[in-house]
Amino acid sequence: MSAARWYRVFRxxxxxxxxxxxxxxLILVLGFTSYGLSSGTLQIATGDSRVGGTKAWVxxxxxxxxxxxxxxxxxxxxxxxxxxxxxxxxxxxxxxxxLLRSSSLTVGEYVWAKFGAVLAAFLVVLGAHVVFMIICNxxxxxxxxxxxxxxxxxxxxxxxxxxxxxxxxxxxxGVSFVVGEWTRRPILLFLLPVAGLLVCGFFLWDWSPVWLxxxxxxxxxxxxxxxxxxxxxxxxxxxxGVNFYNTAHIPFDAGLIAxxxxxxxxxxxxxxxxxxxxxxxxxxxAGPARSWLEVxxxxxxxxxxxxxxxxxxxxxxxxxxxxxxxxVPSFWRSLWLVARTELRELRSQPGLYLFVPLILLQTIGTxxxxxxxxxxxxxxxxxxxxxxxxxxLTLLICLLLMFxxxxxxxxxxxxxxxxxxxxxxxxxSALLFGKALANSLVGLAIVLATLVGCLIVIAVxxxxxxxxWPFALIWGVLLLPTFLLWTSFVTAAFSLTNNREATYxxxxxxxxxxxxxxxxxxxxxxxxxxxxxxxxxxxxxxLEFDRWALILNRVMVLGLSVFFTVLAVGLxxxxxxxxxxxxxxxxxxxxxxxxxxxxxxxxxxxxxxxxLYAQVYQGFEGAAAKKAQKDYWRKNxxxxxDIPKPALSAVDLDLTLDPERNYFN
Amino acid sequence: xxxxxxxxxxxxxxxxxxxxxxxxxxxxxxxxxxxxGAGKTTLMRILSGLLExxxxxxxxxxxxxxxxxxxxxxQLGYLPQDFGFYPHLTxxxxxxxxxxxxxxxxxxxxxxxxxxxLERVNLTFAAKRKVKGYSGxxxxxxxxxxxxxxxxxxxxxxxxxxxxxxxxxxxxxYLLAALAQDRIVLLSTHIVEDVAVLCTRFAVIRHGRLxxxxxxxxxxxxxxxxxxxxxxxxxxxxxxxxxxxxxQAVLFEGKNRVRIYEPDGDPPAGFSPxxxxxxxxxxxxxxxxxxxxxxxxxxx
Lengths: 665, 300
Fold this sequence. Notes:
heterodimer, A: mainly alpha, B: 15 strands
């Protein structure tokens, strides 16, 4: 291996990383998150601090470790998957691979340089993230943080970074790299982060029933690629007291260290596997047949072109005799044409066949293992299952819709068909709607898989009648606007940026921001576009809680989806814009004119949003209620502040506790 | 008529790809000749509505097509220089898809029409094969099939014969020649032979400007009695390049067969008069000889 050649490739890709919108969007998100979390929105819950004693510091090694684990695994994961999986795919799309391979550059130099560049770039991101945390936790004035800031200890940040964050990053980068190299399909890059989110976020991190065998628990801790289960189960679940968490270093055990080393090694090993596979596929033969279809195809061969060509007459018949004419195809015909062609492409995508079993397993597994209060089994009804799976379904479908929508909308650019396709008279609206229709079937497939899972659970339970209408109501009426909004938003983002990675960055940024607001209990009905954790089912009355809020929210979301659809169609670039003219379009007068054109489409979501906000403001958790609460406590305090204390010097008390009867006297 | 007025295109850099191009194209075949980087593809993309110019105007039969590309696309057949197809579709399905996008209608139906068009471009044998298995020449022919479909008013073909073998190139010539009778066909190429065979008129573009507009016969007449030819050694060739205008130098039977431009009728010894070719005219135009050394467009 030549170090000089390796470095050339590494340097080019490393510097290129800083030109990618994905990179800067992640940095922005991390900066914002670091500031938000420095206010104590994610704190270690210990008994002392919950009852008004000493607060748990956000600057302790435990707190920093917990934050880093969650943020790195969930938020970096998707960005890493795209960044690490795309370099080889991009080289193929740019048609530069043959040029590189016909040079002295070896496969090993190429692969390790590409991987190294992505890893180095994200280590820079990690470094920046840690610096943001330090600055926000220790130096940025924040009155909410006075009681939760401890002294600055560098090792509190370095140790969790090295033990938790670094192996996770190497693992995700390496595995995404080999997936990209092996499959050359962008959609499959998201399998790992999605699987990680579903398996870890919805199961591994918080599933810990009292009856779980400690040995199985230990195994689950060690197979968690993030390390969160180990930290939670070993040190956070059993309260050690706030002073311990604030001052102690995390006592790592051999098992955890070994697990982190293994994940690190898997990441590196994956790159070695990518090198091995790439070497095999480019040297001579096309490699082993992937399926019996391919074997058949190779045996069949094809009619040699030359024998047919030599028999052809030199002058072909005139085209005029064909009697052709042309017109503008109708909107519906164009829509159907595009949708049908997109569906053919989707059928050949392995992603769908992998995501569907994943969601099926996750649904059945989570429902089967769910427990109620005191470890009692839950009676699953259709409505309860529909609501219980809503969060997972929404998140998974939103992620998949984003991936499929972006890849679909840029398919013409990726295949080189854009010049021909965009020069046809098909309407842009028909083009985009056709693609959206085809991609919506991805969502439908996931919903159907989830429905099958739920029906299986209910059937096996055998206590409740199988009914479909609750699923149709919750997933159809309530969730459909969410997916319409998300699809139109992602399409509008792509129309605006005309860049795949920028669109992924914006989409992931929005999801992360939404998740952050949810996590920090700042979410309300106006911002909850995916109605995450806000639908409550009772079989005694259909959606009686928050019914009006739900209706207004869904109307607002539907109105927004129309708005973003108009934006997407208007901004979609079939024609490359002239940079000079872009500036004239950004003049205030031009912007105002464009804004006025969009105003009618913004009316419905704005009116619904304002009405919703008014309800939130007046609601039991709104500003008015909070003020009333504060006034009450102020008045209460004023009443009792100067009351003379009772003249008691001592009290003798006989107290009998009877836990078995839940009784005391 | 396709009227192009003062078309300018400046890319960030800044790079001026087109410097005020003006042309009037009636029905028939019009060639645009120029070296790589001259601005041909930029002009083709602007005329096909896929690239916004910095300034200028383009009218097709009196309609402004720059501000209203949707009107243009209804009447356009376009074969770009660099393009691809959906790899998972067969040639037949890909062509049918594009024809339907263009709103093409025919008495025999789309499927039969696709068969006819594929037969015209000699792709019948590969109609059921997926496009990802096509060679470069086959993709070019499939692209040509979609470009000529639907009776378009304007056909723009950018470097159409790239990747075609001589037999296919001949087939292409016949196809386009028949189509050019009653529509505007704009052919952009750096292969002089294409223009010589197909075009009634052509223009030469260099550094974003038109440096010549003429017909092949006019260009050849201008060079009458000015081209001379001989076989020389390599050393003599180097001397000739320094002292004369060498238009072509090819190896033939181990010797350099050289053609020179001598407007004064005083060639070196050993040179005999030769019939001028369009390639001579093109090369001399590119060097500014026929345009008196200035880059300004010359109509003659």
